[in-house]
Design brief:
Elements lengths: L1 H19 L17 H6 L8 H13 L24 H15 L6 H7 L3 H11 L8
Length: about 140
Amino acid sequence: MAGTHFVTYYVTKWVPAIAGLAILPPPIPASGLASGELRPFLLSFLPMDESLPIRLKRIIVETLKLEGVQPDEIDENEPLVGSGLSLDSLDVLELVMRIEKEFGIKIKSSEESREALASVASLAEFISARSSPSGKGS
C-alpha cells in the first residue's frame, strides 16, 4: 500500500511540479525502490544549487547532529579531526559511511580517509576527483 501511495504522490505532485520547471524526472524502476533509495532517487533529477563545500558542511552538521553549529560556521580549511571540529573515530566512521552513500564513492583505507577528511576543502577535492559527471564514483 505504501508503494501505491508513493506512486500516486509522485504522479500527482512531483511530475506536474517538475514539468513546470521543464525538468523531467527519471522513470521509477520497474523493480520499485528499496527503502533507502527514495531520497537519492528524487534528488537525482533536481539541480544542485549549492557548491560541494557548502553541501558537505550541511552533511557534516546533519550526520553528526552538531547542535549549535551552523554549516556556514565551518571553515573550509579547518581540520575536521583533532583540532577544529574535534571529530572522534566514531564520528569519522559515520561521516565516511554517509559520504560514500551520498556520493557513490568508496574511501578504501584509513590513509585515504585521513587525507580526505583533513578539511572540508580536501573532502570536496577528494569527492570531485572520484566522481563521474553523473555523481556516481568509481
